[in-house]
Amino acid sequence: PMCEEKCEIFKGALPGQYAHAFQDDLFLAKLVELQSAMCEGKLCDICERIEENKPASHWCMDCNDALCETCLKVHLHGKTTAGHSCLSIEEMRRIPLETLMKQKNKVPCMKHNELITLFCVDCREPLCVQCMAVSHRRCENVITVSDALTSRTDVNDVISRLNKLQATVENAGGIGQPDRTLENSIHEAQERINTICNTICDRVRQYQSVLLKSLESQSEKAKGLLKDRIQPRKTGLKSIKAANDRMQTLLRYGSDVEILLAYNQVRKKLDSCQGAIGNTEQKAPSVRLDFILDDTVERFIENFDRLGDLTVDVGDSDEGISSWGVTCTSSDDIIVTDCKNKRIQKFSKFGDLVDYVQLEDEPRDITTCGNRDDVAITMIGKLVIFLATRKTMQLIKRAKTERQYDGISYSEKDAYLIVSSLRDQVVDIIHLDGSVMRSFGSGAGDRVLFNEPRFISATPDRTIIISDVGQNAIICIDHNGKVVFRYKPDGQNGLKKPQGVCVDKLGNLFVADFGNNRVQLLASDGLFQRNVLGIESALEKPVAIRVSGSNRMIIVQSDGMVKVFSYS
After folding, report:
1. What would the pLDDT profile of 490-541 be if each residue is shown by its tens digit?
2. What PANTHER family is this protein classified in (predicted)?
3. C-alpha angle 197/198/200, rounded to 5°?
4. What is the pLDDT of residue 476?
């Protein structure tokens, strides 16, 4: 907890020599003193101040001082201390610490040095009488401290939020995981460098030492970047733990005033930091150091130039985005379009590669169409091809199209294809021969509907779901092009370069949130339900997504890894 009050520090103060400038924490000071007094061999505090060591026999509850027999007699007969309550050390040790802490625990006002006895409900601040008369004379709800803490609902709510926030920060991707990821990537890069260098000629070996030195410097740079990214989270977690521990300790040992003082400070700070830390609960800081092999190494005898480069990957790369498509057959076979390698791959439901077709041009997306598990694939070159997949994959036909299309989906009810065009910023409904039936690109008042429409999914109720990468939004239109809903949330549910979309039998909508490494579940009306997959499920940069008829969720990541999850 921080009071956020400015403290003057003398000019010559060195690091570690300015703590005395901060306001004293009277609650912790008393707690530490009482705990110290309960230990064996406690010395008289008054004697210690004049550099004498005498064993303490009593404790003054008003002064919070340990007293020897001599000092006790003086203390009980002094004009200002005669009425103080003194307990023997042995008696005090038999009393629970929480009872001792709450006895005669009066807190003075920092502004007026009067005892705090009131609480302003309107401002949520503990007050002394002068505070009420000067600063809160217009407040209508001022009550006593004891009345204010009759119900601890608000205090318990702050503690509950602290517990949840602490758990969120501790579990958001794992604070230690990024360190291990970076170290592993550095080790992998080093191993790869050494392996390549040991298989080629002396000329490459001369460059090996240069490259390893570069690895060392880049490693330090990467570690520095990771430290800069993760340190605020570690610092925030430390502050949250401290606040939580303090509130728990106050509830056990503190007086009503102390609880209310700390509660107000913690609540204000918690309200200000909740959103900022919450935004980090779904994505862990990621820094990698990768060794990228240069293409010229394969032809090093003719035109050797360099072995490779070291780059620091901070997890923001768009590599692999929009490079995959996926669908599944009635027998749960998985069909994947590999845009980079220009091929269509068929996997069994157990993950075995069953068949593949090498293409001349790049495929863009894929969908099943019809009842025989045929698939339709959008291709570079204004083309849609149809393949049979029941046994071996075979070409059925080709259909030329008027536009270059990217995303594709099939409407079971209407037996037509729905396609998207990034270049023309439109969504078209086309016949199976490629001719356009309807085209959607503008809304009311000729407002452009789409920026970068990429993936598409037809729903059972004849609506069309489109992921718009440029707008970071999901747009739903009916078969006449009217917008049903637009999902573009802010805050922790905000989309970052959304990719694949699909629906299940009940009309629930799933979105591959590429930039946030998660899959979001939306209701059929576009309302957010929850995140069903994320980093904690080892999901990284999902691109294509499909839910099979047997309730299996198939996801293709940007690195080409196909992952299958059970869904219920």
Report:
1. 888 899 999 999 999 888 999 999 989 999 999 999 999 999 998 888 888 9
2. BONUS, ISOFORM C-RELATED (PTHR25462), E3 UBIQUITIN-PROTEIN LIGASE TRIM45 (PTHR25462:SF291)
3. 70
4. 95
The two three-digit tokens of residue 28, written as one number: 């912790």
452 within 8 A of 422, measured Cβ to Cβ: yes
Element (H, E) at 332: none
pLDDT mean over 463-487: 93
- Residue 503 confidence (pLDDT): 93
Edge-to-edge order in the sheet of strand 552-557: 542-547, 552-557, 562-566
Q: What is the pLDDT of residue 122?
A: 82
Main-chain phi, psi angles of 264, to 5 degrees = -65, -40
pLDDT digits (tens, 9 = 90+) for 372-428: 789 999 999 999 999 999 888 999 999 999 999 999 999 988 899 999 999 999 999
E-assigned strands of 287-323? 288-293, 308-313
Distance from C-alpha of 263 to C-alpha of 156, rounded to nearest angstrom: 9
Question: Exposed, middle or buried, 499 (CB in 10 Å: 0-12/13-18/19+)?
Answer: buried
Distance, CA of 215 to CA of 197 (rounded, Å): 14
In contact, 382 and 402? CB cutoff 8 Å: yes
- Total Cβ atoms within 10 A of residue 509: 24
Q: How far apart are CA 565 and CA 148, in angstroms?
A: 51
175 pLDDT higher than 90? no
3-state DSSP assignment of residue 98: helix
Q: Could you give the 3-state DSSP secondary structure of residue 178?
A: helix
Torsion of CA 148, 151, 154, 158, to 10 degrees: 110
Lowest mean pLDDT among 137-151, 159-173, 470-484, 528-542: 159-173
Q: If you ran DSSP here, which 8-state letter would residue 21 be given?
A: G
Decide: 522 and 498 in contact? Cβ < 8 Å: no
DSSP string covering 45-89: HHHHHTT---B--EEETTTTEEE-HHHHHHHHHSTTTTT--EEEH
Other beta carbons within 10 angstroms of residue 506's beta carbon come to 8
Is the C-alpha dihedral spanning 173, 178, 184, 185 positive or negative? Answer: positive
In one letter, which amino acid is 177?
A: Q
Question: What pTM value is reported for the model?
Answer: 0.47
